[in-house]
Design goal:
Elements: E1 16-24, H1 33-50, E2 54-62, H2 73-83, E3 89-92, H3 95-98, H4 102-114, H5 117-120, E4 124-126, E5 130-132, H6 137-171, E6 183-187, E7 193-197, H7 199-213, H8 218-227, H9 240-247, E8 255-257, E9 272-275, H10 284-295, H11 304-307, E10 314-315, E11 323-327, E12 339-344, E13 347-350, E14 356-359, E15 362-365, H12 366-380, H13 395-415, H14 427-447, H15 462-465, H16 471-482, E16 485-487, E17 501-502
Parallel strand pairs: 1-2, 1-3, 3-4, 10-16
Antiparallel strand pairs: 4-5, 6-7, 8-9, 11-12, 12-15, 13-14, 16-17
Length: about 500
């Protein structure tokens, strides 16, 4: 009797899709050692629980608190992926790494129920807290209790921290965190911290205060500091907002500021609580006067484009653009204080062969060159005549763009609804729907036919319309019809302004 051969088959186990989520609230050094330790322990748990037939995706939020309400990009991506049913399990070090608030747990439960995984079971495995079963009512109840305990712990920590900060502020001690510009933080023997003045930074603060008192704008102060290579503590160039932030810090006047941190943003100007224990860099009276100077509406002068309307049309012979600037002149020459000039600062360029090319400082009086260019325009202006602007029908494209903008507005409305509303959109869902709409809108605007704008009115000459133009229109007219004007460097020699200019060949006059 011959035995019958039977065919044997081997079942291939499906790959388990696992998401690892790691997070740490504070990583002031930026080394990410904390999240790396969490990741290593999570991978060890996966190896013990599921073996090697897995596909692991890592989601990492470093130096982000889950309690403060700050945006967690990786957490939002994970929640969107769970909504789409992309994972069979979630692994983290502890449940408080994934959520610290009850409503965040509800987000995870809603994400699982959105794709039917809530009943099938997507376990949340943790290294320190065990398995969280969100597929049953008892499991969800236990998870909510644990979330409530974590939230209560965070709330108590917040209360203690706020009370401590208020107490430190009332004593005039330095707050925790990075010290403001001009100081370094130092511990005191009896407890608490104070500030010690950094002389090099204090010198910059005094320079800023003097410049603002002299009438310089914030941007002008920033440009002068950058020109003199007096950069910020980080080594980056100054901006006008950086200057404002530094000079409005109460610490530089020996004042202790304290503003309780809100979950949605914070004010840039702290409320003064009282005198601090560290010495001031500038006096309190001077600091208060500077605040009044910056708040003065008269400082909002005409934009630089109005005061220096030739900016963008003047260049040196080596291609550097001259920009408008004010100079207070020599102290003994009171008649030239606050003189307007166009200038290009001295600079150096390292060539390919290692040699250095020095570009000299070039400046020219604004009133002189503006007068020369205006006389030139009035002489040649009759040769430039404005043309008729053709009518272009854009109604079809405008209608399509309007429809897309209506859809975008509706997406914004839906994302702002309560989460229990049927029309509510998760941020990830809104982003996914918004992206193609924005691409389509961009393509439509790019294909929209645009009539070539005309600076001059139809039939009007440049000379005849010159005195009706705004400073911005005058700049456009000079660049369009005359072209780039070269200003030659002459050092300290007295050379008439017309002899310093190289004018291009006039452009098309039709």
């Amino acid at each position: 009797m011959t035995p019958t051969r039977t065919r044997t088959t081997t079942a291939v186990a499906a790959v388990v899709r696992i998401a690892i989520y790691v997070r740490i609230s504070k990583d002031e050094t930026g080394t990410m050692l904390g999240v790396e330790r969490q990741e290593a322990m999570c991978r060890e748990l996966i190896a013990r629980r599921w073996g090697t037939n897995v596909k692991v995706t890592l989601y990492r939020d470093n130096n982000i608190s889950a309690w403060s309400g700050a945006k967690r990009p990786a957490y939002n991506e994970l929640r969107a992926a769970l909504t789409r049913g992309e994972y069979d399990a979630v692994v983290c070090y502890g449940v408080d790494r994934l959520y610290r608030l009850v409503r965040q747990l509800e987000d995870i439960i809603d994400a699982l129920e959105a794709n039917g995984k809530g009943d099938d079971g997507v376990p949340v495995e943790t290294v320190a807290s065990g398995n969280i079963d969100l597929s049953t009512a008892d499991g969800r109840m236990l998870a909510r209790v644990m979330a409530s305990v974590a939230q209560n712990s965070s709330d108590k920590t917040s209360e203690r921290t706020k009370a401590t900060n208020v107490q430190y502020a009332e004593k005039g001690w330095a707050p925790a965190g990075r010290p403001p510009y001009g100081f370094t933080r130092q511990a005191m023997p009896g407890g608490g911290h104070t500030y010690v003045i950094v002389k090099s930074e204090a010198k910059i603060i005094k320079r800023i205060a003097a410049a603002l008192e002299a009438g310089d704008t914030l941007n002008k102060v920033a440009r002068d500091l950058n020109h003199d290579l007096k950069f910020k503590r980080s080594g980056k160039p100054w901006t006008g907002q950086n200057v404002r932030h530094v000079i409005m810090s109460p610490a530089i006047a020996g004042q202790r500021g304290h503003t309780p941190r809100a979950k949605k943003g914070h004010v840039w100007r702290q409320t003064v609580v009282g005198d601090a224990i560290w010495p001031p860099i500038i006096s309190k009276a001077r600091w208060n006067a500077l605040e009044m100077v910056l708040a003065d509406g008269a400082r909002r002068q005409r934009p630089a484009s109005d005061l220096f309307w030739l900016t963008g049309a003047l260049f040196t012979d080596d291609g550097r653009m001259l920009v408008g600037s004010r100079t207070r002149g020599a102290k003994e020459r009171k008649d030239v204080n606050d003189r307007r000039i166009y200038r290009a600062n001295r600079s150096e360029t390292v060539n390919d062969d290692g040699t250095v090319t020095v570009h000299p400082f070039v400046s020219i009086d604004s009133e002189d060159i503006e007068g020369v260019i205006e006389r030139l325009v009035l002489c040649l202006g009759d040769e430039f005549v404005g043309a008729e602007v053709p009518d272009v029908d854009t109604s079809v494209i405008d209608g399509q763009v309007e429809s897309i903008e209506s859809d975008l507005a509706d997406l914004a409305r839906r994302s702002g609804l309560d989460e229990d509303d049927d029309d509510y959109l998760l941020p990830a869902e809104r982003a996914a729907m918004r992206k193609p709409l924005m691409a389509r809108r961009k393509a439509l605007l790019a294909s929209r036919p645009v009539a070539e704008p005309s600076i001059l009115k139809p039939g009007a000459t440049l000379a005849g319309q010159w005195f009706e133009m705004t400073p911005e229109q005058r700049r456009m007219a000079v660049v369009t019809y005359l072209g780039k004007i070269v200003v030659l460097a002459v050092g300290r020699r007295q050379v008439p302004t017309p002899d310093r200019l190289i004018l291009p060949e006039p452009r098309d006059r039709s």
